[in-house]
Structure prediction request, 710 residues.
Amino acid sequence: MTTAPTARQGAVGTAHTRVEGRDKVTGAARYAGEVPFTGLVHGWLALSTVARGRIRAIESADALARPGVLAVLTHENAPRVETDYVTGYTSLMGTPNPSLAVFQHDRIPHLGWPVALVVAETSEQAREAAEALVVHYEQEPHDVAFTAEHPNAYDAGHLGPAVTGKGDLEAELAASAVVLDAEYTTPEEHHNAMEPHAVTVRWDGGRLDVVDSNQGTMVIAGDLAPLFSLDPASVRVRSEHVGGGFGSKGQVRVHQIAAVMAATVLKRPVRVVMTRRQMFSLGGHRSPTIQRVRLGADADGRLRALEHRSQSRTSTVHEFVEAGAGPARVLYDADAHHTANRVVRLDVPTPTFMRAPGEAPGSFALESALDELAEKLGIDPIELRVRNEPERGPVSGLPFAGRNLPACFREGARRFGWADRDPRPGVRRDGRWLLGTGTAAASFIALAIPSTAEVTAEADGTYTVKINAADIGTGARTALTLVAADALKVAVDRVRVRLGDSDLGPAMNAGGSMGTRSWSWAVTLAAEELRQRLALGEAIPPEGLTVRSDSSAAIGALAQKERHAYGAQFAEVAVDPATGEVRVRRMLGIFAAGRIVNPLTARSQFIGGMIWGISMALHEEAVRDQASGGLYGADLAGYHVAAHADVPAVEADWVDDVDPEDPVGIKGIGEIGIVGAAAAVANAVWHATGVRHRHLPIRPDRVLTAARNA
Prediction:
């Protein structure tokens, strides 16, 4: 167990075990579905069995007559909600979200749409009654076919422009010595956190008290208040411990809305927990993508033309864009540089943010294409990337606030043994196995969102930090403890951090790799002011001396530059040509991610993302049945992910990455670990076999088919 450093040593940068670790491993830490309440009842969601149509009737008499059943909420009797607003999560999208109109109409936009909530004294009684409901539908033809030629596809963008472009693309392609034109695809993917989506709701003295599993209580409170026409001050959301989120818990979802409805009707605490199967239709997912990359280069490898067009899929209810063209807007420049994100509306659930949204699938296409171009040119893949290092943001035109991608490649190549690599594909063997190595670049934007924090000097000599942060398993609570200890110049054991409560004030949610960076800024400002006041001799009253900060002005003063974390991914694979089996033997990721607060949990975050990249490359694939509109195997038995036996020696490390203009220096690490990882594995499979795989996952049958067709 790591010993807490003294104040002189400095806490930040020193490995530290999680401050709440003992509570978690002993069961003392309680999650949203475990907190006890007197008079608690349980809700069970019933979902549609058709992919498009209307509800003609719901037969609920049998369900209501069953033991313990208290209510059946449907579109015919549920409280009304208001969805025509933009705040909370919807402010990110810029438009109201009709997906939140739970039990408000008889329309069915996709298979698995909520049609009822059954509430009973126990969850077993609620489930039995929900399964007894008989729902009659007026079924309509549905469309879930995602194709590149879909006639309803259109340019779309949020959190960035839909289309960017400069230069004459066709002219530069025609003038290029080498041209690559390829299509890459990634499948629908799902994030199923260890802790399922769960919420417990009660009315407490006129306030709505929500104990929830989420990635930011302010976002949830910011949606629930206008949904139910409540004063924002009358909504409190608490989320002390969260067992994973990965983007899926970053917004209000059906179970929370239904629980508030039931608590309002029954005037009792109500708990609703999604099942694993329900999470596949109600928890969001990563859209499949179809991406076309066209590259043109001079004989020396300098890019003259770059086009990256990515098409994703959304629901007919609400628009979400998996912005796969994003990485091309940062990593490489060209005289003609064009990108586009397109989307098509289909009868499927609305996708959502999933670890490195846009960057994860986009980097697979772009970094695979760079590898193919390097092969055509006869240039080492790392050398090709270094030759195309841009001086400014290819789309923004802004200068970079440090760009240490070449340093990541240099260090990674040294440690991975890249110099000993024979560039010829299909020549290395280990018995029956073909061996190959591959690499890819990674990037993820480094932003900060204004947040507030309170730091209190207590009369007993300890310090209390209050900030509405969210620790979704990343170690944020520990990181903030270290940041506060350094800012206060005290030992770590004198600092306590409280988080996950909307009453603590506005703060960034855990998303976009912006959480720790944003929260640390606010905590540092408050802690430094408090330390200065104490140094001037200000007395600590019995109730403590408190300083509150708001980082808005400080963040606003930061110079406008391109700020990103970067990384270089390396993979070695073994491929059995007789069975098509692919085994990743080792991976190395070297990152430039600013100031590393806690090396222990940071390395875990990087490695976790890289392992997810192995899963993405070789295993993950949700397949929709065209006839029903639903998924085959919508559970963790049918949805394949990398298991222990699939995960080799995975190593992650970092290079120094200092931004002298940034007083915090943290860039965020939660997402970049997966970026480029799948491409590195795919590039290694090419190097092992000489056959290129442009469609994920690289299943054994695809390996065998590709070998036969080679």
About this structure: The chain has a mean pLDDT of 96.
